[in-house]
Design goal:
The protein contains 11 helices and 17 strands. The protein has 432 residues and is α/β, with parallel strands linked by helices. The protein has a single domain, classed as Metallo-beta-lactamase, Chain A (4-Layer Sandwich), CATH 3.60.15.10. The strands form 3 sheets. Strands 1-2-3-4-5-6-7-9 form an 8-stranded mixed β-sheet. The protein has a 6-stranded mixed β-sheet with strand order 8-10-11-12-13-14. Helix 8 runs antiparallel to helix 9, helix 9 packs across helix 11 and helix 10 packs across helix 11.
């Protein structure tokens, strides 16, 4: 494959967070790459710096590189440009087979991402019409944005969790009877229309569009207008550093929401790149987050669940009343996965020792919980906004910092380390 760089493994990880905080973690270096691979020098994966020469930026913040890298035979990493808080790229992975390719997380919506994806596919001798399957790890626009475009370009099937929906307490997929453990092949996916019963087809016709997309559009509009449950900053549209209005406009129109043709659940098996991949439901970052695991290849596609040098945002606005506990449980589940030698995250470079990294992330959150308790003892009864301004640096203040603070305070409340009451339309927390 012309233009493909083979196996550019990263330097040892330097850990950090999606939102700036006062403390830092450090992970052990990843294990050596599989035999018969040659690491091209000791430059790290983000711009040729020598390991140890200087502290690099966090991996996930680095701008997207245009070259495609082969992280495993017939498994390509394509970095797509994004501009979101704390992030510079999203990894779109292509799993090649005789029919073309399955891609995982095809980036933000819009012509810029489409052109970037076309350019990277071309390096592998492919076009967008050669993509027969799209897998979406979770319902954030930097992961599903070009899925609908790929479906329209070449009829790609779209796989996502059975309650896929933009991180807003999504409803179950439309009229699809699903049983955990069902094995799904590309041939199965080609018959996905049969899973829509007559009522769903009638709804599609009567509504003048896809019922799933219409439902997601309505849920997004309702989500955007919701006040925050803690009484702080309004939830509002997702921020993308100058592209907020463009993304919000697309989401309001419903033009980017994909038609999930094959919803999947925990334990399902999908055939991608000629191999079996197990679906692992890992809620926390979003309620519909999935990872994919190939025991045969010993690869783990982690999405945003486990990242190499930052931790994913854990919002307090999802369907769970204790989202941090849900995330911690999902970390335990991921860390206990056997037959994993290499983790392929949605941001940053490949890394090893999944169990160690999940332990590091859990330790970070436990340290943050202790810091929240210290803040509570210092300032007394306080709002989520007040706690967040003590917990995060000023440049991170706002809805996302408040939301994550709220998730930590609710964890403490459930563990009986805090209590809350309402005052002037704001929640006030008291650390016990």
């Amino acid at each position: 494959m012309d233009g493909i760089v083979s196996n550019p493994f990263a330097c040892p990880q330097i850990t950090g967070y999606f939102l700036e905080s006062a403390s830092a973690l450090r992970s052990d270096p990843p294990p050596p790459p599989p035999p018969d691979y040659q690491i091209p020098g000791m430059a790290d994966h983000v711009g040729g710096r020598r390991c140890g020469a200087m502290k690099p930026r966090k991996q996930e913040q680095e701008d997207a590189r245009t070259e495609v890298t082969e992280v495993f035979p017939n498994v390509l990493r394509m970095e797509l440009p994004i501009s979101m808080p704390g992030l510079g790229h999203v990894n779109c992975y292509a799993l090649l087979d005789d029919e073309g390719a399955a891609v995982i997380d095809p980036g933000l919506p819009g012509p810029d991402t489409q052109k970037a994806l076309q350019h990277r596919l071309a390096q592998a001798g492919l076009s967008e019409s050669d993509v027969h399957t799209v897998v979406i790890t979770h319902s954030h626009p930097d992961h599903f944005g070009c899925a609908r475009w790929l479906a329209e370009a070449g009829g790609a099937r779209i796989i996502a969790y059975q309650s896929f929906g933009w991180g807003i307490g999504a409803a179950p997929a439309q009229n699809h009877e699903h049983e955990h453990g069902h094995e799904v092949s590309v041939e199965d996916l080609q018959t996905h229309r049969d899973a829509l019963d007559a009522d769903a087809q009638a709804e599609r016709i009567d509504a003048g569009g896809d019922p799933q997309i219409i439902s997601m559009k309505k849920r997004w509009q309702q989500h955007k207008e919701r006040p925050s449950p803690w009484g702080g900053s309004p939830l509002g549209p997702p921020k993308t550093d100058g592209k907020e209005s463009e993304i919000a406009k697309l989401m309001m129109s419903g033009d980017i929401f994909p038609d999930v043709t094959h919803p999947v659940g925990d334990g399902d098996i999908v055939k991608l790149g000629g191999r079996d991949w197990f679906i692992r439901h890992t809620p926390g970052h979003t309620a519909d987050h999935i990872c994919l695991h190939s025991p045969e290849l010993e690869l783990y596609l982690a999405g945003d669940h486990v990242l190499p040098t930052i931790t994913p945002h854990i919002a307090g606005t999802g369907p769970s009343d204790n989202p941090l506990e849900v995330f911690m449980s999902s970390l335990d589940k991921a860390g206990a996965t056997e037959s994993v030698q290499r983790v392929l995250p949605a941001h940053g470079g490949p890394f090893g020792d999944l169990a160690k990294r999940t332990d590091d992330i859990k330790r970070h959150h436990h340290e943050r919980l202790e810091r929240v308790k210290e803040i509570g003892k210092e300032i007394g009864p306080a709002s989520v906004v007040d706690f967040s301004k003590q917990l995060f640096k000023e440049r991170s203040w706002g809805m996302m910092a408040e939301s994550e603070t709220y998730a930590h305070l609710e964890y403490l409340r459930h563990s009986r380390d805090a209590e809350k009451y309402s005052e002037n339309d704001q929640l006030i927390y008291v650390i016990r």
